[in-house]
Predict the structure.
Amino acid sequence: MQLSNKGSIATALAGATCALLGQSPAHAETETSMLKDWKFDTAILYYGETDRVSLAEGVISATKTNDDDSIFNVKLVLDTLTGASANGAVAQPTVQTFSRPSGKDSYQVAAGETPLDDTFRDTRVQLASSWMQPFADTWRGTAGFNVSKEYDYMSLGVNGLLEKDLFQRNTTLSAGLSYQFDSIDPVGGKPTPLSSMMIPADYDDEFEDEGEGEDDDHGSGNNSGEDKTTLDMLFGVTQVINRRMLMQFNYGLSLVDGYTTDPYKVLSVINTNGVTQDLIYENRPDTRTKHSFFWQTKYAMDNGVVDLSYRFATDDWDINSHTIDSRLRFNLSDNSYIQPHVRYYQQSAADFYQPYLNQSDELPMYASADYRVGEMAAYTLGLKYGRKLDNGHEWAVRAEYYQQDPKNAGFAQPGVLADLDLYPSVKAVILQFNYHF
């Protein structure tokens, strides 16, 4: 299945600074001999949603600092996903039947339950590398690439970052560019947008006669894959305020062109009583322009570090989002620390988001019931503990709780839908172990 955030400008930044799943860059060594050594960051991550998707991920990142202060980084990621994912249909007071992505089998969802497709299984392998090269005393350039492969998805990307130090290196200007090419080959072929999901013949009687598909081949997929390209640009300034405070401002522009539809998501077509009459595949616009504004401040206290950031993003899908992220690192001793983490996220719904379609209305050009493009709020609460060993190695463990709360963006719940939960919360736990040597 598709994974997000592949090959953005952040990939170049992460590669240049040895970032690993949100881990801080490795501490600079003072001895020249240490600079010549390879440094390794490893991580094991578990992400598990209640009754939904689970992710297990392993990461290893290797970094080499050369005599000319250039930095080479290579990172390998392997993850597996299993579980169930919401298919977009609304709950019903009766049992519902859905076709699996292959179109050769079906599954049923109990009365009153959110329809979940339990075929969400995939393995992803990603390789990324970057080279940072200082030149002309106050300039640095970083170039990188990444490749990622899943069963139904392949992603290739290149990126570059240029940085310039000013005013005794108290100010740094940066400009980045990345290009990503994604190829999507859905299981069972790409479904025809807004066409009916074909249910195997043995289960045709699950739907009422009224509102069924117009013809036998309506909704059948084709075997050709689809492509998507993403061009990201980033412009930023980092400023040393005083000996304790550092501040950063970034502006990002993202241009997406191609297949943005999720081929596994459907919408319910309901009658005036809220009863499902048909299931149709979603359709999204084939372009997306996104702007983001980011501010971050880090403040060094006598016994710790405060890290606070805010991000605002807006796009031509009418999704506006706000993210507040805060971390407080508190040193327990010279060799250990704890770091509480609080994050809050809020977004508005896309202009084509609809939890369902009315049978009496004309089909729109674009429509999706995917809660990820709907109105929502989410928060993360976590705690990290880290320790530096006598041999210079470091380890850390992180535990977090994540909850996503979809909201009703002003849609009525007619008839049988009035007593059903159409916007269930998604709850998850995150566990991570890091080791640096």
